[in-house]
Amino acid sequence: MKLKSVLSVIIFLMTFLSSFQTYGQMIRDLRLINVDSLSQVMHELEGTPKVDALNKISLFLTVNNPDSSIKLAEEAMALSEIMGYQKGIADAYLSLARNFKFLDSLKISFGYLLEAIRIYEEIPLCKEMGYAMEVLSNINFGAGRIDKTIQYDKRRIRINDELGDFVGTAISMQEMAVAFRWKNELDSANYYALKAQAILKDHPDTLSLINNYGILQSSELRKGDTDPGSHEHYRKSIEWGEKAYALIKRTSVTNPFYLWLRHDILNDLAEAYLENEPIDSANPGLRYLYSVKEMIDTVEIIGLEMTTYSLLASIKSREGDHKDAIQLYLKGLEIAEERMTSYLDSHIDMGAMSPYYLKYLNLSAKMMVYDSLYNLYMKLGDFENALEYYRLKENTFQEISNQEKRKLIAVLEAESESERTQNQLSLLARENELKDMRINRSKILTYGLGGLLLILLLVTILFIRQRRIKTALKEQKLQHDLEIKEVESNKLKELDKMKSRFFANISHEFRTPLTLILGPLEKFRSKTNDPGSQADLNIMQRNARRLQNLINQLLNLSKLESGKMKLSVKEEDIVSLSKEYVQSFESLAKKKNIALEFKATEENIPVYLDKDKYEKILYNLISNAFKFTEDGGRVEVEICSRQSDAVEYTADCELPTANSAGPCAGIKISDTGRGIPPQKLPHIFDRFYQADEKDSNIGEGTGIGLALTKELVELHHGKISVDSQTGKGSSFTVILPLGKEHLKEEEIESNNLEASLNRKSKIDHRPSTIENPPKPATCNLQLATCN
After folding, report:
1. 0.70 cut: is pTM over it?
2. 3-state SS record for 504-561
3. What is the pLDDT of residues 613-648, one digit of tens each?
């Protein structure tokens, strides 16, 4: 194996590594925070200084303690919202975004970042705006959007220039250089690295300066790799590397970033010397290479083990010692796997490195090593092992591709929710399809060429193995998709529970002060005789009771959802009970000049129901009818029933068509109001939904009443439906099953039907303007839903 081809692979990997190693402006500033001192004085702080301290500690804890970091950010946001402190809210969004980035939830992270930037743009310029741009730049780089990365880095440079943060400007230029190097635009990469070098010369920062030497060193090494026959770039790479190493030897810093940086510098020096000079005992590259190996063997530098062992293996391979080369490759794989497992278990502080990026780097290095092992085994004629490592390489490549797709899709989805860029997602899907087709074609071609080298029996065995692998991969992908959907479903359920708890808690909090308001108000109203004051007090009392009713509805919804609201039914005469409730609307009907009619096909219809809950159902539906009916209109309430499936009715009370049958009672509330547009009908029973129109007050209300009504009807094992025409009116129909076979034993109370009928008799003698139609009226219920 040629050394240059191995160096190309290693340089590619080291370029990717350096994109995450760049000594970011945020990391530099966070290392200056004295968290212990802030924590000690936290209890003494108030107002915006407390918010700023919470946000600083939250940012500092992002990597090593994300749970505490998120809690602190949420606390800072809550305090900021109370005070109207916009910068505190934006800083909290930034901290949450950084946490979710390290947790690999890029879509959530991206959304928080966009919200933070929106607020930062509305307040005076601050360095946290640069931090947000830095995180956006890193996310876009990880998703493969290099042009976007460069765009955000340029904005960071302008922000740091305005703030006078010269070192921050140099760091931003370093990251632009890495991005251009990733695009293979090496002249542009050198341009920005040299500009950063000029700034750091006047404003020295040791680690940033070492990192800049390393960027220049790596760029020249890559130029040498892309310009065969030229040794000038290797000599320049050596020059920059020696300057970096000289500065490293004078530095006593021992943090993980420094160890990574030292490894990169020595590794690149070894590569440049080995390519520029003959490989013998006098070559300084060997000395640097074995120095790096000693570092790897004695210090846990996570994610870099395979690069060093790969370079050692390539030298052995060049000398013709393929077996020793294979052992070195396998040793690098073994060490890397052990240390990655140890890191993920112990959460070692890796600075700006999240576990997900480290795992990604580990996969990239493994893919390169698998490719090298495949080539070595082919040279040795060991086709079985060669094909095994080729399969591992392809599987790893597919896993990396899937991760890249997922990250890119997450970023695009978050961006599309903010900017409505659905076309980008469609384009990505088409590109992914084409990419999958190319990968599949490549696999088929590769296996076909390999089959020519083997006997017919081996071809048959490989074909069977290939089929098994594809099946396993499909099963793994399906399992992965199911797990993702389950996680998303659990998150949605938890969010819904949190929403319900919120409404229940806030409703309880509102009800107590509202009760304390109504008591003195009623007392004061009884004591004053002034007509003007009485009118105002009546308005106050009416609206307070309306608010109390809304709060009770919210509590009822919460009880229904949590399963705490139970039925307590007994047999009631639904005709007399409904008539009693309808009569309570007579004064409102007269006031609004609306004709209120009540009809019943029978004198009494016994139904098992919860009287209190049935009152809420009827009250909400009749109130809704009055609310949307203009003066001079009409509201009708019709009661009818079907006692037997064999009886056919032909009369006035028509209910909605359905396929099921059975004895049931129907309550139909009709109005001649505005009606509901057809496209709104499927949603009117959704919670907090309002079928509002711009030029009317049809949206008055909260969207709670109909949702509560539907829940209460279904609690009675009934059905509710609506029929409406715009401009003509609406009809709501409630179907309740007769009898008690559908009820549970614990839902039924003892019932005194005679007392119920006596109550009906008293109600019938009450003066009323509602006309009852003569008996027997009829009811078309043969197709209504009763069960």
Report:
1. no
2. HHHHHHHHHHHHHHHHHHHHHHHHCCCHHHHHHHHHHHHHHHHHHHHHHHHHHHHHHH
3. 898 899 889 988 998 899 989 999 999 988 754 333
